[in-house]
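Input:
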Amino acid sequence: MNIWKPHLGGRSWLGGIAVVAGFFLLNEAFVHGVFGYGLSAYYLRVITLVGISMVLAVSLTLVNGCAGQFSIGHAGFMAVGAYASAAVTHFGGAPFIALLEILPAWPVHTLRLWVSLAVGAAVGGVAGWLVGLPTLRLRGDYLAIVTLGFGEIIRVVLLNIEPTGGALGFTNIAQGPEVPGRSPDQRFALFLEETMFFWVALVATGTILVVGRLAYSSFGRSLAAIRENEIAAAAIGIDTTRAKTTAFVVSAALTGVAGGLYAHYDNYLNPSSFTFLRSVEIVTMIVLGGLGSLSGAIVGAGVLTILPEALRDLTRLFPPSVTAAAPFLASLPDYRMVLYALLLVGLMIARPQGLYGRREWPWLARLFLTRDGEKGVG
Amino acid sequence: MSEAGHRVVDAPSLLTAENLVVTYGAIEALHGVSLTVRKGEVVTLIGANGAGKTTTLKTIVGLLRPKYGRVIFDGVDVTGRPTHEIVGRGVALAPEGRGIFPDMTVLENLELGAYRQPDRIQFRRDLEQVCTLFPRVKERLKQRAGTLSGGEQQMVAIGRALMSRPSLLLLDEPSLGLAPLVTQTIFDALSELNRAGLTILLVEQNAHLALARSHRGYVLETGRLVMSGDANALAQDARVREAYLGQ
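Output:
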């Protein structure tokens, strides 16, 4: 299993460069506008959050979709990754600020972000390993119980850690700790503000590629076997504990990266962002999209992030004369979460297998298949 | 009368279970089961529901850990080793209720049977052999395994087990829920595999058929072995006939 080996022919690196350049140009267009037409900060925010949601949903797919395990505590891994990477940025800024004196700004800022994200991934992965190793040895619903507990424990612990703000939240992450008598260094914060869409898009694409390559490898097959019949999977020689743990650790690490992106995007963290509801939201994304389908996870992340926002704008659907005649229409946005819930219920009744079931967009699946067109075996 | 024919009394033992005690929580399911399977043999474990037949198989293949006792396969003590390691040593299990992967195609099921087989050429050869053994499987390679009939699913389960090139095949009730004719087909295939050199340990409720196709048998009753011996002799035994053959 070599998930890094590109199977898109010899020119896959060209495609890679094109994608990176595309994201860069999009970022420039979104942030600075083109010919005077820009994207409002609000829409840019929604789009960026969609990207972070995609990272969350796609990485959860590896555990809940591919391996058929049930984690309902991924907000916990997101929180761990978010706080760890935010702490590195916040408290470990000094060497990078020193580097700014001798190097151009953007490589230093880029390096700083990636170091922080890498720490978020590592801490998320280690947390996943610690949670997964004892529970994934067992079959059944233990993982759900333990991850649920883990998520809550992490949140309560974060509420009580003073250096990262506790219940007040972790503020001015990119500026670093306040030093009396000196104004905070805003350079990294400004860099993040102007480039986060680019980084989120890049990480989301990378996550989709990594999870897709894993899902379509022999490793992914062994996860599918575990999902369909764990005893039979063991009986054909799959080390089920190891496969499940690997999937779980990879998923937790990627979720940690998503947390890191979230921390750097908002420049602020609060433990209340990582409640059980957050975990459920991620699960809902992949169930709505179709458990086990990456395309579904991508669409689910988009729908569930955009829908609550789109419902805010409901009154715009009606001209003023109509809202004047029927005032309750004007208050529709107040009921947006009710509508949101009803839409979800309706969708699950109409398509219980999710929007995509287990299917993928053919162009996406093609990225993951091995060169001879077979899903890797053995 | 055993159709498998030749006697293998003198062959060295391939699998030895010594005094296995297995518990589910506080309940003891096996109270000290010892059995031996020699190279080239077909051995049947018969017994009523709840006698501990499946538990014995699961313990041998490492899905359950015995409280006491040892499992020795091919001269190596594999007691308490993880299942994938025991399978890697050459034991294959076709689990109870067939245990196929229903949402995958038949071919994918067989491919997964070769999970530990890195050699693609060998894989093709093994696939060819399974297809020859079960022509029905060959017809349905592209079909979703869950849509197959019970007999076909059993064939897939056995075929998948064979794909790992085992030296010992464990079968948990291959006749379960199958029509008599299909059961015959499956047992014919098992006899053929045995003639080709495969050692088989079989768990069955269909004692009549199983004993007819085996060299030796063990009778398990509520977690204890109560009888053992030559399959013919067991099939003639008055107590066995009464309890398991309905005669």
